[in-house]
Amino acid sequence: MNQIVTHLISVQFERGNTHLFLYTKCNSAKFFGDLGFYEIARIDGQIVFMENRKTGFSAYLERLKKESEQSEVMKRFTSDNTQILSEASSETQKDLRIAALVMNANPFTLGHQYLVEKAAAESDILHLFIVSEDQSLVPFSVRKQLVLEGTAHLDNIIYHESGPYIISNATFPSYFQKDADAVMESHANLDLTIFVRIAQALGINCRYVGEEPNSQVTGIYNEIMAKKLPENEISCTIVPRKEANGTVISASTVRTALKNDNIELLKTLVPETTLHYFQSKDAAPVIAEIKAAEHVVHH
Questions:
Q1: DSSP string covering 7-73, please?
Q2: Longest Cα pair distance anywhere in the chain, in angstroms?
Q3: Percent of the chain residues topping a pLDDT of 90
Q4: Angle of helix 140-150 relative to helix 110-121, nearest 10 degrees?
Q5: Distance (Å, rounded) from C-alpha 101 to C-alpha 207?
């Protein structure tokens, strides 16, 4: 076993993959610990999530804290730009509603914009995590651009790239593929366990999420979130989806409209910023990728 794992690590390093993650059973974690892997999180009796960097996750949390402390939003809540809000025990923090939103935005729609606007309006500070895993038809660089442009009118948002620890192929591979319910539940529990630690580091006390009537994976994730987050003193607000043309707005519908060259439908589903992008020359490669895809609907 030692030789096999060592060989697999060498293969990944040769491929340029130096930050490695693994899942294992709880009673096997010590073995992998002896081979240079460090525990990030565990679901007792089910699964342990590990990485090969001793300070990988802690460095990620420090990065998020630094992004928060240096943001213009945070400066409004601290007169001397110290770390007054960086610890969950901060007295100041208890009086604030600090919310989180995680979105893939593949691409950014009027539904996403509505959700962000609602969360921002009901919160003092909103941490918006943009899923940076490049597994979507719309590349991360474009998704991030559209989120920033579509929320530029809001002044209490701190933006973060999600990295490998929130809805990524490492923490939640089922999000990107159809999988058995039991596996999806295990992955969702793991992803949320990690999110709780992120929330504690940033003082997040509420998470917003859009209602999900169409996607099985996201629906299961929302159900587990609504149960697990309150157990960790984080409220969970599930927001009914914004509708257009008599049905809920979804990124899947937007991708279908792009695939079918249905610009009139597209205009009813996305904000001006997203529409402007998809009508520009820059969007041609992305649209071509969507048209070439066999499936554009996220289950």
A1: HHHHHHHHTT--S-EEEE-GGGHHHHHTTT-EEEEEETTTEEEEES-TTHHHHHHHHHHHHHHTSHH
A2: 59
A3: 63
A4: 50
A5: 6
Q: Identify the three-state secondary structure at position 159.
A: strand
pLDDT tens sequence across 287-297:
999 999 888 77
For the stretch 120-163, pLDDT in tens is 999 999 999 999 988 889 999 999 999 999 999 999 999 999 98
What is the model's pTM?
0.87
How far from chain centre, in Å, is Cα 152? Answer: 19
What is 85-292's CATH topology? Answer: Rossmann fold (3.40.50)
| Beta strands at 206-210 and 98-103: parallel, antiparallel or unpaired | parallel
CA distance 246 to 249: 9
Under 8 Å between Cβ of 154 and 148: no
Total number of residues shown for the chain: 299
Q: Tokens at residue 103, please?
A: 């979105």
Closest-CA residue to 157 (of 81, 272, 273, 67): 67
Strands (E), the chain: 21-24, 38-43, 47-51, 98-103, 125-130, 157-161, 206-210, 235-239, 243-244, 247-248
| Angle made by CA atoms 276, 278, 284, in degrees to the nearest 5 | 135
Report the Cα–Cα distance between both ends of the chain, in Å, rounded.
Answer: 37
Nearest to 223 by CA among 208, 238, 202, 203: 238
Using DSSP's 3-state secondary structure scheme, residue 172 falls into coil
Q: Are the CB atoms for 211 and 243 separated by under 8 Å? A: no
CB 100 within 8 A of CB 208: yes
Q: At what angle do helices 56-69 and 181-202 cross, to 10 degrees?
A: 50
**Taking the domains of the chain in order of start, what are their residue ranges?**
2-51, 85-292
